[in-house]
Design goal:
285 residues, alpha+beta, 2 domains, five-stranded antiparallel beta sheet
């Protein structure tokens, strides 16, 4: 699939402030499942400087810095992206490593080690759920991921939550519903507990093509034997194929945030507004 994406983000501060350098993680990633065909970003106020960087996690970010003061910060990104992974299971499972916890070689452990650390927050019930799924037969990484997706689809609802932050995984189980980012962190907690490297991914999902209401989406990426990093979307209950566009992935959700940076100004507060337009330009084949 080919997608044309326009994403407008604006912060209004109420009074003039000085902007510290900002990182904008709204550059679609180029990797084995998607190709970035074109990208442009317009920033106001006009930056004193700008550059594209590849961060330590392999994500591309637009870094901008400023001189002078302003009462707003706005960025509009336009991207053309081709998604190419039609079959999310198009790999040969490495049978000797299809066990839990998943064995990692030295290079894998160095890169994916942070994706095995326990998730912060109350997780006792979530970890017990993970152990139950293992006892009931989900003893290989892919089997566990699919069993966990199925359990979430059967027992939890996806809702819209505008409040900032992320709920503890056990709070999600208690509520019975949560946002995509909350469900993703629950998914990460369970996968890491049984020994599957798991990270938080932020990006776009095709969604309802007839709807103009869009927001950023969150899902998980797991490192699987033979498959490398593969996406799993707990809020939709599916393995990620060609209808997701990833922007950034990180062991910690904050490090995949679309915009990060700070400002200096007495008594100023930031108000965020944004708009996303996503069009399917062409279907492969």
């Amino acid at each position: 699939m080919i997608y044309r994406i326009t994403h407008r983000t604006r912060y209004d501060y109420g009074r003039r402030v000085f902007l510290e350098p900002h990182q904008v993680r709204l550059v679609p990633r180029g990797d084995a499942c998607q190709r970035l065909l074109a990208f442009a970003a317009a920033v106001t106020p006009e930056p004193a400087g700008r550059t594209l960087v590849t961060d330590v996690l392999g994500n591309t970010a637009l870094v901008v810095w400023f001189s002078g003061t302003t009462d707003h910060f706005a960025v509009t990104t336009e991207a053309l992206v081709e998604t190419v992974r039609v079959n999310p299971f198009d790999y040969l499972v490495e049978a000797p490593r299809a066990v839990l916890p998943m064995p990692l070689d030295r290079a894998e452990a160095a890169v994916a080690g942070a994706c095995l650390l326990p998730v912060a927050g109350e997780c006792r019930r979530t970890l017990a759920l993970a152990e139950t799924l293992c006892r009931h037969g989900a003893r290989a990484p892919q089997d566990f991921a699919l069993a966990l997706l199925g359990w979430i689809s059967d027992n939890l609802r996806t809702s819209v939550r505008h409040e900032p932050g992320i709920l503890d995984p056990d709070a999600v189980l208690e509520a019975g519903e949560a946002s995509c980012r909350d469900l993703t962190v629950l998914f990460l907690a369970a996968c890491r507990h049984v020994g599957i490297p798991a990270r938080f991914a932020s990006g776009y999902h095709e969604g309802d093509p007839d709807s103009d209401e869009r927001d950023l989406h969150a899902w998980a990426e797991l490192y699987l034997p033979g498959g490398g990093w593969r996406g799993f979307d707990p809020s939709l209950g599916l393995a990620v194929a060609d209808r997701h566009i990833v922007l950034a992935a990180s062991p910690q959700p904050d490090d995949a945030a679309p915009v990060s940076g700070s400002f200096r100004g007495d008594g100023a507060t930031a108000r965020l507004t944004h708009n996303i337009r996503l069009e399917v330009s062409l279907a492969n084949g």
